[in-house]
Design brief:
With about 400 residues, the protein is an alpha/beta fold. It has 13 helices and 16 strands. It has one domain: TIM Barrel (Alpha-Beta Barrel), CATH 3.20.20.70.
Length: about 400
């Protein structure tokens, strides 16, 4: 999740759709061509480079955080032959839960629910990776009362934003409990268990969520990690938990089925680091040695809470770390068709992950390929709810005209 949910739950603004004309459509078709070249990504070969970004939607069945047939419809609508979809962030344990109605991937019921989703995506010829998530301090004790306080690298609460209770009520963040050294093997074991559950559910691979201020990021960045043990201080120490988890995922899946999401220079969830360039260079170099399927970078220019609000002065993450990670690199953050194609053509990124525009355009790859008009998205329906704003956005028919999804 990279949006401020407490703001969006009360926001009903419809985003403007990019304007198009016949000439503009022809121009878009020509310039979007790089997005529709095949891509070797770990053990897979993608038919195109338009990726569904992980998008928190909070529509799992309660109690139990179990994926359901509505979720299966949502993902199947966005599946294409040889296309890659990444699930919404999915907690690896009850302790890792940070938002009500977010799905899990650690119980038999959740595995059965996800199997419905993976079957639906595979029926369309698509690939689906599960994004594995532990939120760390971005949680509230009401979500796991038997466990108690949220946990983190250090006992430091986020300075901004609100936690969401089990009743969807925004409240001040609690000060988290710092994980002890003896607990960290349990965290790694929870990721291992979730990875095995993802296999049982029929996924094609897993993505470690190490971005946007959640637990792995909390260990990485020294604005939050004030530890003085083997998991704090130096870049190598702060990267230790991430690499232990990656190695555990590789042991389950093989390197060619494991990806990671990182957010260098990201500020979401009150994150900061004193020297991000060497930190993320080291991490990506270590990941390159392991030959994982891909690295997925969130561009710092994109502000998750504002449409079209891109900070032109922010570093270009994909360009900055291209040499550190020569494998498949997915870039996310504020892209439209032409800017996405430019990022691929330049060699800075190999694929582009789309978020909001994929929410409102279930057939986004086809629309980009045709240069077709995009549906507007409604922010008020992003988090929680029913099929409204989830599975009811129209797709194009064979003639290119919009038709309602059923």
């Amino acid at each position: 999740m990279t949006e401020s949910m407490t703001e969006l739950m009360t926001e009903s603004t419809l985003a403007p759709a990019p304007a198009t004309s016949d000439n503009a459509n022809h121009h878009a078709r020509l310039h979007n061509a790089p997005l529709f070249e095949p891509l070797a990504l770990g053990d897979l070969t993608l038919a195109h480079r338009v990726v569904l970004a992980p998008l928190t939607r909070l529509r799992s069945t309660q109690p139990g955080d179990v994926p359901n047939t509505l979720n299966a419809t949502y993902y199947a609508q966005r599946a294409t032959p040889g296309g890659l979809l990444i699930t919404e962030a999915t907690q690896i344990s009850l302790e890792g839960k940070g938002y009500p109605a977010a799905p899990g991937i650690y119980t038999e019921e959740q595995v059965e629910g996800w199997r419905t989703v993976t079957d639906a995506v595979h029926a369309k010829g698509g690939y689906l990776f599960a994004q594995l998530w532990h939120v760390g301090r971005i949680s509230h004790s009401s979500l796991h009362p038997e466990i108690g306080l949220p946990v983190s690298a250090s006992a430091i609460a986020p300075a901004e934003g609100k936690a969401l209770t089990a009743a969807f009520q925004p409240v001040d963040f609690e000060t988290p409990r710092a994980l002890t050294l003896n607990e960290l093997p349990r965290i790694v074991a929870d990721y291992t268990h979730a990875a095995r559950c993802a296999q049982a559910a029929g996924f094609d691979g897993v993505e470690l969520h190490a971005a946007n201020g959640y637990l792995i990021d909390q260990f990485l960045e020294d604005g939050v990690n004030h530890r003085t043990d083997a998991y704090g201080g130096s870049i190598e120490n702060r990267s230790r938990l991430l690499l232990e988890v990656i190695d555990a995922l590789i042991a389950v899946w093989g390197a060619g089925r494991v990806g990671i999401r990182l957010s260098p220079w990201g500020k979401f969830n009150s994150m900061s680091d004193s020297n991000p360039l060497p930190l993320f260079t080291y991490v990506l170099q270590q990941l390159a040695v392991r030959s994982i399927a891909y690295a997925h970078l969130v561009e710092p220019r994109a502000n998750g809470g504002a449409d079209g609000n891109l900070d032109a002065s922010a570093p270009d993450a994909a360009a900055s770390f291209r040499k550190a990670f020569p494998g498949a690199l997915i870039s996310a953050g504020g892209y439209l068709g032409e800017t996405a194609s430019q990022a691929v053509s330049s060699g800075h990124a190999d694929a582009i992950a789309f978020g909001r525009w994929f929410i409102s355009n279930p057939d986004l790859p086809r629309r980009l390929q045709l240069g077709a008009t995009l549906n507007r998205y409604d922010r008020s329906t992003f988090y929680g709810g029913t099929e409204k704003g989830y599975t009811d956005y129209p797709a194009l028919d064979e003639s290119g005209a919009a038709t309602a999804n059923e």
